[in-house]
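User: Okay, second chain of the day. Same drill as before: sequence in, structure tokens out.
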Amino acid sequence: MVNHIAFIVDGNRRWAKERGLPSFEGHKQGFLRVKELVRTGLDLGIKCMTFFLFSTENWNRSREEVSYLMRLAEQIINQEIENLHKEKVKLVHIGRKDRIPSSLALAIDKSEKMTQNNQGLILNLAVDYGSKDEIVRASRKVVEKVLQGQLQASAITEEVFYSCLDTHLSPPVDILIRTSGEMRISNFLLFQIAYAELFFLPCYFPDFSLEELKKVLEDYQKRERRMGK
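Assistant: Same drill. Structure tokens below.
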């Protein structure tokens, strides 16, 4: 059974460039693909899907591109949250909220509160996310619990640490998919993918179709996940 599929969304700009389109169009098509994949996840009974949309390093891109991505994320969330809520999807933001535009942070907060009791698919949107940053923030939470007397240092376990991660509501990742032909993890869910099956695909994310996902799932079923045994 597949509980959690995570996507490193990659290739939007190259997809647009090869078609003579502005990079913004590639990002727009990428967001539409996320929407379609969530629908597919619901149909397949997937418990959790995570999409890496904007990394802590992506702030190094042009101000124009960053602004567009933030506006687009806000627009899509506002447009889709009612439908997601009807489908019992629980929307969760992973990453930092202190650096993104306040209007996007408010849209995320509203969506998280609206869907917090939903028991369907967990949809993690990674915006201003970096795994090393997440691990540092989780470590601070653990230390604070120890200092406040809520936790003994000897009682710190993997489970305790996991409970302090942004993804504490989600199961560990079963399948990690990266599109565009790149073969890197790029600071994404380093703790959560410890035993994930990795798929590095040549297609750009806007071209990642239902058929591509079916091929990944078929391949996954053939793999032997020994978990160290």
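The longest strand covers residues 48-55.

User: Thanks, on to the next one.
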